[in-house]
TrEMBL record:
Protein's UniProt name: Interleukin-18
Keywords on record: Cytokine, Cytoplasm, Secreted
A Pfam family reported for this protein in Swiss-Prot or TrEMBL: IL1
Top-level taxon in the UniProt lineage: Eukaryota
Subunit structure, as described in the record: Forms a ternary complex with ligand-binding receptor subunit IL18R1 and signaling receptor subunit IL18RAP at the plasma membrane. Mature IL18 first binds to IL18R1 forming a low affinity binary complex, which then interacts with IL18RAP to form a high affinity ternary complex that signals inside the cell. Interacts with cargo receptor TMED10; the interaction mediates the translocation from the cytoplasm into the ERGIC (endoplasmic reticulum-Golgi intermediate compartment) and thereby secretion.
PANTHER family (alphabetical): INTERLEUKIN-1 FAMILY MEMBER, INTERLEUKIN-18
């Protein structure tokens, strides 16, 4: 008998890029994550850019691979989660480690899905607690901020949700 909780299987170490080849950079001091153009020098320091993608076993593979994200910023670990803020869902990074397993619903799990059947290197990440909500970016001032975005249809092709781990 398998329990319904997610159990950690592997950890991948990746940077996350958007369709513009910008890297996702986490800035906990400003409470944001945004896609930015990054120099080779900044890339070497890797501060807030090198993600650990925690992959979990699942009893429902059709939903996608369950994953959680964490990142190191100045020798501290942060994990990605979603919280309701002023009536809408927001992506946040909290100090601490991703849990080893989850007894039930969890605001840190996303389902990794191929972006389109013909685009096997690109993925989209659906929030586990709300079907049709995906990690995406939106232009806000000079930033391309990481957000949760509702897609009207499962097969909708929205370039703002396309990511390359």
């Amino acid at each position: 008998l398998e329990c319904d909780s997610f159990c950690k299987e592997t950890i991948l170490h990746r940077v996350l890029r958007n369709v513009n080849s910008q890297l996702l950079v986490v800035r906990p001091d400003l409470n944001i994550a945004a896609f930015e153009d990054v120099t080779d020098q900044e890339m070497k320091s890797g501060n807030g850019m090198h993600f650990s993608i925690h992959c979990y076993k699942t009893t429902t593979p059709s939903a996608g691979m369950p994953v959680a994200f964490s990142v190191q910023v100045e020798n501290k670990s942060y994990y990605m989660c979603c919280e309701e803020e002023r009536g809408k869902m927001a992506v946040r990074f909290k100090e601490g480690e991703v849990p080893e397993e989850f007894p039930g619903e969890c605001n840190v799990i996303f389902f990794k899905k191929t972006f389109t059947p013909c685009s096997s290197r690109a993925f989209k990440f659906e929030y586990s607690l709300e079907q049709g909500m995906f990690l995406a970016f939106e232009q806000e001032g000079g930033l391309r901020k990481l957000i949760l975005k509702k897609l009207s249809r499962e097969d909708e092709v929205d370039e703002t949700t396309k990511m390359f781990p």
